[in-house]
Design brief:
Helices cover 52% and strands 14% of the residues. The protein has 2 domains: 4-268, no CATH class; 341-452, Macroglobulin (MG2) domain (Immunoglobulin-like, Sandwich), CATH 2.60.40. It is built from 18 helices and 9 strands. The chain is an alpha+beta fold. Helix 12 (197-217) packs antiparallel against helix 14. The strands form 2 sheets. A 5-stranded mixed beta sheet has the order 3-9-8-5-6, with no helix packed on it. It has a 4-stranded antiparallel beta sheet with strand order 1-2-4-7, with no helix packed on it.
Length: 504
């Protein structure tokens, strides 16, 4: 039987959609970086690719590791996750100078017709310049930190998986904006002198210190969910909150003060550096551009008018369809995440203290996931050698055979909990019996359930609606660029293979 520490380390929750998105981003970046290096670009070094991939890996760890599994039980785990999303992943991603490699890594048709014109448009430049202005970036970072750590919004994120993902997205996006003036990734230009980043970072440190001090020195638990949740590691909810504030204080201060010191030293010892002059090699056709010509069968079968740009467009449409279909399927058909479960029942018997987690709100007819935590009643030590059986009886039909399932650790992402899917086929009132057995000790717990008719509607289809909206925007952008009044001019796209290349 594994120990509690081993069970915690084995509690990984791999999000399929996020993992797919991160892996696809890494693939596009590596392809763009390789094409730029092959073309002789002096602005992309191997260390930049390594830092970008390390940033993606740290982002994946924040979403898949035990930090995510235990963030609804332990505030310190949640705070560590926030620190990775705000202080570690964003600067690493920006140190990889991702803008040009990501655009260059796309198929040439997508880069030329969509990504390149969008990045080089005056509207995108104005919006980007405004958002990454140090004053705006500092305000956005502070607002995101303080707003999401207020009890109302923090509790909303703990109760709702959708809002939890919105919270993480806000932290990541505002942190990328905040760290942009500090890192100043190529080919962006600084809006303030370099020495101004020292007070910029110190002000951010003051914001972080104020928020962490509120958590560390508060004499009451600010987030009620952590008071209600079972205590897994022997310390109280208030002690957990103090530790979370200390983590935020120390990690945040290091993340802000260390770069400020480095920048100050660089400014004091700065010497004029002449940028190297590089000559771009002639650009070679990418695999997406020359695909029909490289395959003899296709070059013989396809008519001349379907080679070149039409073939590029078809290949891009095909790749988009496959990518969108995979992403939508992973969002809607992925495994149940422990984040989607809420505490539904908590009770103690002669020997055991039991907490039952399930889908929040009314249950819908069909299969529903349940997780059970079993602890010693007196010491609150998590018991990993118990057997848990679930049996659900409809209240209106006592003669009907119960729906049964045996919980196990193998079906749970949180290896301190035993999980099982229980079939509740009809709507109405049900009674769930949880039987816990350890050796000769055995106790039963009863939990009333309310099962309602499946709602259906568009709630479960939102990824497909978002994909359709994305396709509509692409079609509108393509038609706008191809309108007769604008001709077929594509403007200057500076996201190319070398410094002397003006158009894709």
């Amino acid at each position: 039987m594994p120990s509690v520490d081993q069970a915690v380390l084995r509690s990984w929750s791999v999000p399929p959609a996020a993992t797919f998105a991160i892996a696809l981003t890494a693939l596009i970046y590596v392809r763009g970086w390789w094409l730029l290096r092959r073309a002789g670009s002096p602005n992309i070094a191997p260390r930049q690719a390594m830092t970008f991939l390390l940033g993606l890996f740290s982002l994946w760890v924040a979403l898949a590791s035990p930090m995510d599994v235990f963030n609804s039980f332990v505030l310190t785990a949640h705070m560590l996750q926030h620190m990775v999303l705000m202080m570690i992943a964003p600067p690493l991603l920006l140190l990889g100078a991702p803008l040009v490699p990501l655009v260059r890594g796309l198929p040439i048709f997508a880069a030329r017709e969509f990504a390149g014109p969008f990045v080089n448009s005056s509207l995108a430049k104005r919006v980007g310049s405004t958002l990454t202005h140090p004053v705006c970036a500092l305000v956005l970072m502070g607002l995101a930190m303080f707003a999401w750590h207020t009890p109302a919004l923090y509790e909303l994120a703990l109760r709702s998986p959708a809002w939890h993902q919105v919270e993480h997205a806000c932290f990541l996006i505002t942190s990328l904006i905040f760290w942009w003036p500090v890192v100043q990734p190529w080919p962006s230009k600084a809006q303030w002198p370099r020495w101004a980043m020292v007070p910029y970072l110190l002000v951010a440190d003051l914001q972080n210190t104020a928020l962490s001090a509120i958590l560390a020195f508060s004499d009451r638990v600010l987030y009620p969910s952590y008071s209600e949740a079972p205590r897994l590691f022997g310390f109280s909810a208030l002690e957990d909150q103090v530790a979370a504030g200390a983590i935020m204080w120390v990690v945040g201060s290091l993340a802000f003060v260390v770069p400020a010191i480095i920048i100050a030293v660089q400014c004091l010892s700065r010497r004029p550096i002449r940028a190297p002059i590089a000559t771009a090699r002639p650009r070679e056709a990418s695999s997406f551009e020359s695909f029909p010509q490289k395959v003899p069968f296709l070059s013989r079968v396809l008519p001349a008018r379907w080679r070149g740009e039409p073939a590029e467009a078809v290949s891009v449409v095909f790749l988009l369809i496959v990518t969108c279909a995979c992403f939508s399927w992973l969002l809607t058909a992925g495994p149940n995440d422990d984040d989607n479960q809420a505490l539904r029942f908590q009770d103690a018997s002669r020997s055991f203290a039991v907490a039952v987690f399930g889908p929040p709100g009314d249950l819908t007819a069909g299969s529903s996931p349940f997780s059970v935590l079993v602890q010693d009643r007196n010491t609150h030590e998590t018991l990993l050698d118990t057997m848990v059986d679930l049996a659900a009886h409809p209240a209106a039909d006592s003669q009907r055979p119960p729906s049964t399932a045996q919980a196990s650790y193998a079906d749970s992402e949180n290896k301190l909990l035993q999980a099982a899917d229980l079939d509740l086929p009809t709507e109405g009132d049900w009674t769930l019996r949880i039987t816990v057995q350890q050796g000769a000790n055995s106790d039963d717990f009863l939990l009333p359930l309310r099962v309602v008719k499946p709602g259906g509607g568009i709630a479960s289809r939102w990824p497909y609606l978002v994909i359709l909206g994305f396709w509509f925007l692409l079609l509108v952008a393509y038609a706008w660029r191809r309108r007769p009044s604008g001709g077929r001019s594509r403007g200057r796209v500076c996201l190319a293979d070398g410094p002397d290349r003006d158009r894709q």
